[in-house]
Please model this.
Amino acid sequence: MDKYFVYILKSDLGYSYIGQTSNLEDRLKRHNTNRSTYTANKGQWSLIASACLTSRSESVRLEKKLKAFKNSEKAIAHLINFGLEHPDL
Model:
């Protein structure tokens, strides 16, 4: 079964980033080695929250919903609640 992740990162400079990927570990490394355009040169990134889904379309839909919050704290709370509501994913 395929796995897709929606995640929220925070940098040590205070920036936030919401994204989705099929390989969370590799994606975090890419953010921290300036191989991602938006996050390049914005400090070291740490994973704050993530959720695992079974399809890319679901992960893209959740990513868009989180980005619509325009507030990283609300997005984090929503993602944490999403994970609690879907523990089998």
Remarks:
- The helical segments are 24-32, 56-68, 72-85.
